[in-house]
Amino acid sequence: MPLSFTGLPDDILIQICIRLDPKDLISVIQTCRVLHAFAFSDYVWHHIHHILPVDLSSSRDGHLSSLSASEIQAATIRALNLDVNWRRPVSRIKRMDKIQPSATAVIMQPLGPNWLVTSNRTRGGIVDISVWRLGSHSKENGRLIPSSRVIHIKPEKAFTFCAAFQKEGGDVAIITVLGAVEGGATVTKRGHLTIYQVNLKGHETNESSLGIPYIMQTWRIQRNAILYYAQISGPVVAAAFVPSKATGEPRRLQILLANIQTKTTVAINSPGLSLFDITKMRFKLYSPYIVITGIHKRRIIAYVRKLPNTIFSSKQIQMDDESLPENWAASIVDYETGPMLSSLADIHISPEPIYATPLTTFTLLVTYSPYASAEGGKVEVYRFPVDTSALNLKFSDWRSSLDFLTPANVTLEPMCLGKTGLRAVWLSHQWNTDDFKLMKASFPNAVNAEAVVAPFHAPTLALPFEPHTCHSLYFDEAAGKVWVGVHTGDIFVFQF
């Protein structure tokens, strides 16, 4: 007599369940009580493979293992519903909130559901950094507590910043600020990387049980260089810089690594870095790895490298401007695409910080926006698989996973790609008619998949601002939140 499905040995059932797609596993749970009790275990839900981005903001450390089966199932159902809603030609916006910082946000960086870091430029051209506690309802009386600025930083001659939790879901935020050092015309150009550790839980007071956040520590690193781009992953901060040289001397791109915990600094001067166009080089930290991408001779190149062991040393090691630079610990893989369509191209990667996400695939967008009335533009999506157990792999003439055309005389800026590269939002500007539209897209990760591009909102929905006033965008892909900063200084948060 053949066995029924529920009569299979437990270890076989477990292997079947953890290999199911999350959507199929939810269907299996609903078939009978036996399978519901069996498949609804922490072990099964901790080992299933999630294709869609899942919001882990309720996890204390950003790992699925710290959530129960019921919590993971609820997060999975939200992710599936969000995906269906996002793919619709007309997506439903479930909620819209408004934040009034009173100054135009040049850059926005949400940290989880409760915090926001912004930068704004003052009249004198100085950039201020603000940390905001987002509005919430009081646990005591249910009243809405409005958003409020809890920390205000005025760094010296700052021009950009990035922020992340030191550990996802934790109480400590890392804010890195890049700027210049005061000096006269005859002084060698010096830049600074200032790292702030902020305790968001703060000190409790009699007036408020929410606590008053404070800056725990400030670490300032100065170099005879121009620093212009930074990323954070755990305790490691990476910043791109170009050393100040005498007139006529070649300038070579380098990367400065800093460990917040040990105060160790390392400069990377790999020969491969000199290939990149400085203005179009980007990188992403997946500690202990880094992905570096950019343009070289009208081709896109992407390198995956392992960070040097020195940066993780328990002993403090500091390198000054005269120290011999180090190289990477290992070369994992090199990618080179075929020839680009045009030199008028921009590269976009996700601004979302990486916490516990393993490095398995790296996604980037390339936008071509020619300023010619008869020539349309194009967007290409590249996905680069990564096997961190391999060494010295090389691929050439790598092709885009999917692409789509854009109308002539249209630019897509600002553009924001989600962390997994499956979704994106942007502001479309038609220069002939000066027409602005917010757009959204899905980029399915499947063979012969096509991009699904649609307006950001239904035509019947009146936005509380004119699209042309949009100054900055941020996209929390897993949570389905889009942040729009406008010229009036207001920030609108759309929940899909």
TrEMBL record:
<dbReference type="Pfam" id="PF12937">
    <property type="entry name" value="F-box-like"/>
</dbReference>
<feature type="domain" description="F-box">
    <location>
        <begin position="2"/>
        <end position="48"/>
    </location>
</feature>
<dbReference type="InterPro" id="IPR001810">
    <property type="entry name" value="F-box_dom"/>
</dbReference>
<dbReference type="InterPro" id="IPR036047">
    <property type="entry name" value="F-box-like_dom_sf"/>
</dbReference>
<protein>
    <recommendedName>
        <fullName>F-box domain-containing protein</fullName>
    </recommendedName>
</protein>
